[in-house]
């Protein structure tokens, strides 16, 4: 990417040439008000530390004020507080003595050198006070304190540490908490806030702020409409920096599940990458997670251990892997589709279908002549058949939106949800695809469009009859016989089918058992744990099949319901 180009994913043009030495901050972080405040605070703390180092015994007054009695973290701090209090009293006494000695005399003596509290702290405290009391809201008049923090005379003498004043000051300070901290109109309600309550609230406020920052970070993990999260930006950065891509340009499409960019290809492993590439970034948001889970479950190719972890990033990665694997399979079988170039986590680089940065139109939007439509229909059916026969794949989301028309060729795209024909729902998915295809071409005016059932039979080579439920029940029957056939041939077997079957059998048995138990009064037998166990045991045939299925690398029995649970929770 040339230096003056702004990257498609927003923000300033990154310097692709320099290696990534540290995790980049997101723009959101850099612009964050909280971050600015935090840095400011750190700077102030540093400054205060420096000051302490220089002045030796200056006590961190903020810490002392913020800490309620009994809440100090150490005896040392407690001692310091007491000492500070004592020093102040001592200074107040000196002030009084000073006044006493000087009276109205023009020549005055000063006890300054005998003071214990450092003048710097006194100044700070006074400034602090002024800042706090500065407000348009006029509540009870605030007594004026002299430099030693004392107001009034004789019996009416009050210090600025007077509980009432402190409590009111705490209320004001509470109002300085971050805006999201709902304080209400505590002053007008005349709320009094003792130090220990104020300290708790303050702590809570800090925790809340941290928590919201964490949540905000979490949000940063997901890819929002067009903006990409930091990790995805890093992947794109590496692709460009490593030379696979020369540049990443404009957005071709931004949908619910992915953002597709146009990119200019570079080279990879000494091989040329297509001149124009489509870069599909799978969104890591969870909106369609459940949906994805259903497609991955039951596909033996993707039922490895990772799936157990239920981490959305991993699911997205598997999802992207699925698209890559399906594209490769299709390419090998000569089905027109984008050539897959490389996959990095949730970023899939593939050949761009189109020219000069102009993507090929979706079949839905391509204004084709009648002849072209006939041709597209032919190609579509042919592609579907090849996909089923040669690749053992069902697209599972085939529609006029996932087919591109380019140079008189119909390309199938968006194959992430494509399932193996062994998937327990493959046939239903196929019937849905057939329905979409038939309806589209029929409404587009193509002659002799097969209805979905005929198309289904054509693609699968089956001869199912009837329509609707009748057709579906034959699909069910066929699926069962197909599973058995596969078992006989010793092929891999979908885990889900056996799992569900076993569960159903157990449930039926349990019901029967319950029934028997209710009818007979023979308690002994029913409560005998051995009998129960024997009854609960797997039937040997199914057990054998599950073992085989496990050996083939599918998931474990115990994990399966969790997965369903998690998916449903989303
Ligand atoms: P989604 O899951 O978001 O629908 P798709 O794979 O269908 O993702 O891509 C979205 C859109 O991006 C497509 O409709 C198409 O217009 C465009 N697109 C995707 N892949 C390519 C490609 N290889 N070449 C050209 N355009 C593409
Ligand atoms: Mn699509």
Automatic annotation (TrEMBL):
Family indicated by similarity: Belongs to the protein kinase superfamily. RIO-type Ser/Thr kinase family.
Catalysed reactions, semicolon-separated: L-seryl-[protein] + ATP = O-phospho-L-seryl-[protein] + ADP + H(+); L-threonyl-[protein] + ATP = O-phospho-L-threonyl-[protein] + ADP + H(+)
Highest rank taxon of the organism: Eukaryota
Primary location: cytoplasm
Subunit structure: Interacts with CASP10. Interacts with IRF3; RIOK3 probably mediates the interaction of TBK1 with IRF3. Associated with 40S pre-ribosomal particles.
A UniProt-annotated Pfam family: RIO1
Acidic residues biased stretches: 557-570
EC number(s) on file: 2.7.11.1
Localization per record: Cytoplasm
Keywords on record: Antiviral defense, ATP-binding, Cytoplasm, Immunity, Innate immunity, Kinase, Magnesium, Metal-binding, Nucleotide-binding, Phosphoprotein, Ribosome biogenesis, Serine/threonine-protein kinase, Transferase
Residue stretches of biased makeup (Basic and acidic residues): 509-518, 531-546
Cofactor(s) named in the record: Mg(2+)
Naturally occurring in which organism (per UniProt): Paralvinella palmiformis
Annotated stretches, region: Disordered: 1-23, 509-570
UniProt GO molecular function: ATP binding; metal ion binding; protein serine/threonine kinase activity
Any one GO biological process: innate immune response
SUPFAM superfamilies, A to Z: Protein kinase-like (PK-like)
Protein name: Serine/threonine-protein kinase RIO3
Occurrences of domain RIO kinase (ranges): 217-461
InterPro entries for this protein: Kinase-like_dom_sf, RIO-type_Ser/Thr_kinase, RIO_dom, RIO_kinase, Ser/Thr_kinase_Rio3
């Amino acid at each position: 990417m040339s230096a003056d180009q702004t990257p498609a994913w927003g923000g300033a043009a990154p310097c692709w040439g320099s290696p990534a030495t540290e995790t980049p901050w997101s723009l959101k972080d850099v612009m964050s008000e909280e971050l600015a405040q935090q840095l400011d605070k750190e700077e102030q703390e540093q400054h205060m530390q420096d000051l302490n180092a220089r002045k030796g015994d200056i006590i961190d007054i903020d810490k002392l004020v913020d800490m309620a009695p009994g809440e100090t973290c150490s005896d040392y701090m407690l001692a310091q507080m007491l000492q500070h209090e004592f020093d102040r009293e001592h200074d107040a006494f000196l002030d009084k003595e000073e006044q006493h000695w000087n009276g109205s005399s023009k020549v005055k003596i000063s006890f300054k050198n005998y003071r214990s509290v450092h003048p710097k702290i006194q100044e700070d405290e006074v400034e602090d006070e002024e800042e706090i009391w500065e407000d348009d809201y006029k509540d009870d008049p605030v007594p004026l304190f002299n430099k030693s923090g004392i107001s009034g005379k004789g019996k009416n003498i009050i210090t600025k540490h007077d509980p009432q004043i402190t409590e009111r000051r705490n209320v004001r300070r509470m109002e300085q908490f971050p805006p999201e901290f709902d304080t209400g109109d505590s002053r007008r309600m005349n709320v009094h806030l003792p130090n220990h309550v104020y300290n708790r609230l303050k702590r809570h406020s800090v925790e809340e702020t941290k928590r919201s920052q964490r949540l905000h970070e979490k949000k940063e993990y997901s890819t929002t409409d067009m903006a990409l999260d930091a990790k995805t930006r890093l992947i794109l950065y590496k692709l460009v920096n490593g030379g696979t891509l020369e540049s990443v340009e404009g957005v071709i499409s931004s949908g619910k599940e992915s953002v597709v960019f146009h990119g200019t290809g570079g080279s990879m492993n000494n091989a040329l990458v297509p001149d124009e590439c489509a870069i599909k970034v799978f969104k890591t948001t969870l909106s369609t997670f459940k949906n994805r889970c259903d497609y991955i479950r039951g596909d033996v190719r993707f039922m490895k251990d990772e799936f157990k972890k239920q981490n959305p990033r991993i699911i997205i990665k598997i999802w992207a892997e699925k698209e890559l694997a399906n594209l490769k399979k299709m390419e090998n079988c000569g089905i027109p589709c984008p050539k897959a170039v490389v996959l990095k986590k949730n970023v899939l680089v593939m050949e761009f279908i189109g020219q000069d940065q102009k993507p090929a139109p979706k079949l839905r939007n391509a204004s084709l002549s009648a002849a072209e439509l006939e041709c597209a229909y032919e190609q579509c059916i042919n592609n579907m058949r090849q996909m089923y026969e040669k690749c053992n794949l069902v697209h599972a989301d085939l529609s006029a939106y996932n087919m591109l028309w380019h140079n008189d060729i119909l390309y199938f795209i968006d194959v992430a949800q494509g399932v193996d024909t062994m998937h327990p729902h493959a046939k239903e998915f196929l019937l849905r695809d057939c329905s979409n295809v038939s309806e589209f071409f029929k409404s587009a005016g193509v002659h002799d469009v097969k209805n979905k059932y005929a198309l289904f039979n054509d693609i699968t080579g089956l001869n199912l009859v009837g329509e609707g439920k009748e057709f579906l029940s034959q699909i069910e029957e066929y699926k069962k016989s197909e599973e058995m056939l596969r078992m006989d041939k010793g092929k891999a077997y979908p885990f889900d089918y056996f799992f569900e079957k076993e569960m159903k059998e157990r449930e039926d048995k349990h019901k029967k058992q319950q029934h028997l138990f209710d009818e007979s009064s023979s308690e002994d037998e029913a409560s005998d744990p051995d009998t129960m166990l024997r009854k609960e045991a797997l039937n040997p045939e199914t057990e054998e099949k599950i073992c085989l299925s496990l050996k083939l690398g599918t998931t474990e029995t115990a994990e399966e319901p969790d997965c369903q649970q998690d998916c449903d929770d989303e």
